[in-house]
Specification:
By secondary structure, the chain is α/β, with parallel strands linked by helices. It has helices spanning 30-38, 84-92, 107-120, 139-142, 145-156, 173-183, 221-235, 248-257, 266-271, 274-289, 301-304; strands spanning 8-10, 13-15, 19-21, 44-49, 62-65, 69-72, 98-102, 124-128, 163-167, 187-190, 194-196, 199-200, 205-206, 213-217, 239-242, 261-264. It has a single domain, classed as Aldolase class I (TIM Barrel), CATH 3.20.20.70. It has an eight-stranded parallel sheet with strand order 3-16-15-10-9-8-7-4. The chain has a four-stranded antiparallel sheet with strand order 5-6-14-11, with no helix packed on it. The protein has a two-stranded antiparallel ribbon with strand order 1-2.
């Protein structure tokens, strides 16, 4: 179905094309894997699993805002360790790489989820080190390079499948990225949602029950491009770019900044599941238009211009 010139690899995981889903839209029940595979993604990425089940926050937890963006504070609702195996086994039947997102408040929490993912047959583990509305294991963790190093080292030392570190916007992003790689991460996912809030000026109350949440969608795309560009320039790491990918141009921009693959999230809400295949078709046409035979030829091209 897909042209060979779109083949890429992240952390040694081979992808038929660069577009996977972002963690968070769907993905902790076995039946979710069926839906996600139907989108045409090159890899299935789960929602974040934690060691213990989490109910999440009370509604309202998601608010649509301007510029095709979302503000959400779901609270990492998930069934805990018991749900990892069923999800991975369901996803594996499609022959796609399966990446399990792992979260926690301490290194041992991440380790437990990562081990469960590997035992179930996952292709890799994405460590959520930057959720903007999860106290104790959220963006504060990702802002601390020493803490990032500690979590990644603990996980990478006990599993053989690749570890990807997902980091959010911070003034220490490059440092945290470098420390994650030193600790054994084989790739980085950049970026997570950006902490933000909205207030209803009539009720005089925040719109989200958690007061603040994570901003995603078109409004953060230029931030994601800057993050990928800045980290790739310093590390040359395998990077998965995420943040406001709605079109092939958005995806291409992240690729030439330094990403080997991209993730799509909020666009699935606004434009529906066909957005993935539209991006893939656009990338193929773009490569022909610029006279390149492979997507890998243009990874980080903006760094060389």
């Amino acid at each position: 179905m897909f042209s060979r010139n779109l083949r890429t690899a992240v952390a040694g995981v081979v992808l038929a094309h660069p577009v996977m889903n972002a963690s968070g839209i769907l993905g902790y029940l076995p039946e979710h894997a069926d839906t996600m595979a139907s989108w045409g993604v090159s890899a299935i990425v789960s929602k974040t699993f934690t060691k213990e089940p989490r109910k999440g926050y009370d509604p309202p937890i998601v608010v649509k805002i301007g510029c095709q963006s979302l503000l959400n504070a779901v609270g990492l609702s998930n069934p805990g360790l018991d749900g990892v195996g069923g999800f991975v086994r369901s996803a594996r039947k499609y022959g796609l790489p399966v990446i399990v997102s792992a979260g926690g408040s301490r290194p041992s929490d991440f380790v437990d989820v990562a081990v469960a993912a590997e035992e179930a047959g996952a292709s890799g583990v994405e460590l959520n080190l930057s959720c903007p509305h999860f106290e104790g294991g959220g963006i504060e963790l990702g802002r601390d390079p020493a803490a990032v190093f500690s979590v990644v080292r603990e996980v990478a030392s006990v599993i053989r499948i690749p570890v990807l570190a997902k980091l959010g916007l911070s003034d220490r992003l490059v440092s945290s990225s470098s420390r994650a790689l030193e600790a054994g991460a084989r790739a980085l996912t950049l970026i997570n949602t950006v902490r933000a809030m909205r207030i209803d000026v009539y009720s005089l109350k925040p719109l989200l029950s958690n007061v603040y949440g994570g901003l995603s969608g078109r409004s953060i795309h230029p931030v994601a491009v800057w993050a990928v560009y800045s980290v790739y320039r310093e590390t040359s790491a395998d990077i998965v770019g995420v943040g406001g990918v709605f079109t092939w141009e958005d995806a291409a921009e992240l690729v030439v900044a330094g990403a080997r693959a991209v993730q799509v999230g909020t666009a699935l809400i606004y434009r529906g599941p066909r957005v993935v295949q539209g991006i893939v078709r656009g990338l193929r046409s773009w490569l022909r238009a610029i006279g390149r035979s492979s997507i890998e030829e243009v990874v980080g091209a903006a760094q060389r211009s």
